[in-house]
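Inputs:
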Amino acid sequence: RKEVEQDPGPFNVPEGATVAFNCTYSNSASQSFFWYRQDCRKEPKLLMSVYSSGNEDGRFTAQLNRASQYISLLIRDSKLSDSATYLCVVRSNTGFQKLVFGTGTRLLVSP
Amino acid sequence: ETGVTQTPRHLVMGMTNKKSLKCEQHLGHNAMYWYKQSAKKPLELMFVYSLEERVENNSVPSRFSPECPNSSHLFLHLHTLQPEDSALYLCASSQERQAEAFFGQGTRLTVV
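Outputs:
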């Protein structure tokens, strides 16, 4: 089983739509969670951290469910500029604390 | 403008060549990483340096050799690579191992 699993997509949505991505992780000792965004042929950039209580940043909402070991990202009122690959990232606090990346979910927002 | 700079941005090399990738971070971080990103695969952690000491090597082939002369600079020395080593090589840094990582723009490597 992969340490971090995501649906690769692509998710094709019209402008203004709401879209949600889920991610599951296998290591129950994982403590830190992030969503990164990666544009085509560019480096990944941090979109937002994910906190236990859930957090919101403008049109983006992240949720964490530790019991089920999944993380979600909700994007409201999608913009064309939201088209990118969204990477779910998990860091464990046991052993060596490394960042583990999912394969990413591709989002295409169309006019 | 990124606080992590990688050079070169693109590199084409033959299987018998020796080349080096360079990474420099201007963020005052104390951990630096090399990742490999191949098509349709997740980012793979290759090496981590924390406080200039290598703390993990994920069974990467010996044809990849990292060097970290100080906390701001990281190199990846390449020799006798294979075509399957063609990928995007990303450098990242973080303030400490618990924080999120900031990436450089990557070196797109093609081995011919």
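Remarks. The radius of gyration of chain A is 14 Å. The mean pLDDT of chain A is 91.
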